[in-house]
Design a protein that fits this description.
mainly alpha; globular
């Protein structure tokens, strides 16, 4: 099990590895849905624990990794059958990748790292 809805089990490098597996089509087709669920759980953890000082150090990197997943995940979600969608199209995330907050730019005062 990759994730238990708790961010310390989902580090930024773990998310980046999962993103690479999906983006480079190296994951088995039978595992893609579970990997997408993993990314979603990590995103939910970032949101749920945003105000928890115990996780303050790891959440920015985790949030950046979640944001990096957006352009990889969006086409897969857009191509999925509507009856499989968790949210109606456009409700959970905008259709524009530029609408995802750039956490690195926020941390560096606007400069990309």
């Amino acid at each position: 099990m990759l994730h238990q809805d708790f961010p310390n089990t989902a580090t930024a490098p773990a998310l980046q590895a999962v993103i690479a597996l999906i983006a480079e089509r190296r994951s088995h087709p039978d595992t893609v849905e579970a990997l997408l669920e993993f990314l979603g759980d990590a995103a939910m953890s970032v949101t749920a624990l945003a105000d928890d000082h115990y996780f303050a150090k790891i959440l920015p990197d985790l949030a950046e990794a979640v944001a990096q997943a957006y352009p990889v995940v969006l086409p897969l979600l857009a191509a999925s059958p509507p009856e499989r969608a968790l949210f109606p199209r456009g409700e959970s995330c905008p259709d524009r990748p530029d609408a995802v907050p750039d956490r690195a730019a926020q941390r560096t005062g606007g400069a990309r790292t």
